[in-house]
């Protein structure tokens, strides 16, 4: 499972989805899906813009968490 820490990063920086959308040009719907971890795929350019805007690496934005089921 891939965990997205976008919501936590926004909270720490006291940013809103609309702020990030305006600053990066990323569609608000895409950011909302990342925020609620419902995105099924993410374009590399979106990850690049988010990481640059937030000043983080991909490893800080996304995390692989092994499934607990056998």
TrEMBL record:
One of its GO terms (molecular function) is DNA binding. Residues 12-61 form the HTH cro/C1-type domain. InterPro entries: Cro/C1-type_HTH, Lambda_DNA-bd_dom_sf. This is Putative transcriptional regulator. It comes from Tibeticola sediminis. The lineage of its organism: Bacteria, Pseudomonadati, Pseudomonadota, Betaproteobacteria, Burkholderiales.
